[in-house]
Design a protein that fits this description.
The complex is a heterodimer.
Chain A: H1 2-15, E1 32-33, E2 36-37, E3 41-43, E4 53-55, H2 63-70, H3 77-88, H4 99-103, E5 118-119, E6 125-126, H5 128-140, H6 150-161, H7 177-187, H8 198-202, E7 209-210, E8 213-214, E9 225-227, E10 232-234, H9 236-246, H10 257-269, E11 279-281
Parallel strand pairs in A: 9-11
Antiparallel strand pairs in A: 1-2, 3-4, 5-6, 7-8, 9-10
Helix pairs in contact in A: 3-6, 7-10, 9-10
Chain B: H1 35-43, H2 75-78, H3 81-90, H4 124-135
Helix pairs in contact in B: 1-4, 3-4
Chain lengths: ~280, ~140
């Protein structure tokens, strides 16, 4: 078991000479925000063959990082949520409309994050960013936002926040099946000069240290995420690109069919975990 | 610095001869490995970065030892030089499903970053240097 192996290694390290070890979180900790208890570990979805329990990345972070997410006043991701709320009622584009013109209160977005990415009416798999830009260009007559733009990150953070605490529940069968299969194939494909698949680290080695990184199961239930390393909020596709680049591979573009399919598959591995957006990670 | 091998003496990545168990008996360069350079390649994130996955008490001055692969204390006792060379060149010959990258292969990868196509992670001499360093890790 990774946890046991780590404890043994930690003991070995402590018994040896002075060695700096990264601060590891308490994996039995409970994520509570404003009295609401989040599901950070639960039984793995049936489609997963090699893991019996899934664990939120929150459990793999240091106690300090965990604490930041537990307090909305400390969580820098909440500034993006506020930014998104402001934008929600902002009239933009040739049609004189804001998001609120059609969708009323932002609370009407509750549950949307749990279903993303989702197949649209034309049978294409769309991420939340695609739905937002479709609203902007088709209904508002406004410019599409860049995938990683401040406006987009504000809006995805705010919309995702409306689902905070609800379980991830993406569709993987029916019209979504072909995309899910594509994502699954990618998850187990070893890319790049380092010849690594997602599974090599996040299925076979979660719980282990990769130098200073404590490998998690790589769930996306906390996205958009405030990353200390980025000093800002970032999208799921930004994170997926980073991992793929680390294998010394050519990566895929934000919004590409490949990353959206991979997003669906990865999201499905976290089915049942609470949406934590905006989460805080290293 | 160790003397650079003459190019003609360097075994190209595709020409490495593996033994029955994946071991590589013959030096890739004919120039003895420099264990100090090998130790540096072990640590360096842009070279071997072996420390990312392997704990190694000999370098307890270094922070953040990985836990993905086996601990390497005494590895020079447990394996022969040919075994270690084979494991570094391409450990998948010995451990088929291993996560460990092949440090002296330059083909057969998917979507390799364009500037790295046809390149190996380590040079032939760097492989020899790391082998020389690992051989110093005795119980």
């Amino acid at each position: 078991m990774p946890g046991t192996a780590r404890k043994a290694t930690m003991a070995a390290l402590l018994a040896g000479t002075v060695m700096v070890v990264p601060a590891l979180g308490d994996e039995s900790a409970e994520l509570v925000i404003d009295g609401e208890v989040f599901v950070t570990r639960t039984e793995a979805p049936e489609h997963m063959d090699y893991i019996s329990e899934i664990s939120s990345g929150w459990l793999f972070r240091s106690a300090e990082t965990q604490a930041v997410q537990m307090d909305d006043f400390d969580n820098p991701g909440m500034l993006y949520v506020d930014g998104g709320l402001e934008e929600w009622t902002n009239v933009d584009g040739s049609e004189g409309q804001s998001c609120a013109s059609c969708h009323d209160d932002a609370e009407s977005m509750a549950g949307v994050r749990t279903r993303m990415p989702q197949v649209n009416a034309d049978g294409e798999l769309w991420a939340m960013e695609d739905y937002i830009n479709n609203c902007r260009t088709e209904r508002m007559g406004a410019e599409a936002w860049g995938w990683e733009s401040a406006d987009m990150l504000n809006m995805t953070s705010m919309i995702s926040y409306q689902s905070r605490g609800m379980p991830v529940d993406v569709q993987i069968d029916g019209e979504a099946a072909e995309y899910w299969e594509q994502g699954r194939e990618m998850y187990y494909t070893r890319y790049g000069q380092l010849n690594l698949s997602c599974a090599n680290c996040h299925e076979d080695n979660y719980g282990n240290m990769l130098r200073a990184d404590h490998l998690s199961q790589g769930h996306v239930n906390g996205f958009p995420v405030y990353r200390l390393k980025w000093a800002g909020v970032g999208s799921i596709h930004r994170r997926l690109r980073g991992c793929i680049s680390d294998t010394r591979a050519e990566t895929f573009a934000r919004g590409s069919d490949e990353l959206t399919a991979l997003e669906l598959y990865v999201a499905s591995r976290g089915a049942g975990l609470s949406v934590e957006s905006p989460s805080v990670r290293n | 610095m160790a003397a650079a091998p003459a190019l003609a003496d360097v075994v190209a990545p595709g020409d490495v001869v593996f033994g029955e168990y994946g071991e590589v008996e013959t030096s890739l360069t004919g120039v003895p490995g420099d264990s100090a350079a090998g130790r540096e390649a072990f640590i360096n994130r842009g070279l071997g970065n072996c420390l990312a996955c392997h704990e190694n008490s000999e370098m307890s001055d270094q922070p953040f030892h990985g836990e993905v692969g086996p601990m390497l204390d005494g590895v020079g006792d447990r394996w022969s030089e040919a075994d270690l060379r084979g494991i570094i060149v391409n450990s998948k010959n010995i451990f088929p499903d291993t996560i460990m990258p092949a440090f002296y292969e330059n083909a057969g990868f998917i979507n390799t970053r364009e500037d790295l196509i046809g390149e190996t992670i380590l040079t032939a001499q760097q492989v020899e240097d790391v082998v020389a360093y690992l051989m110093t890790l005795q119980d």
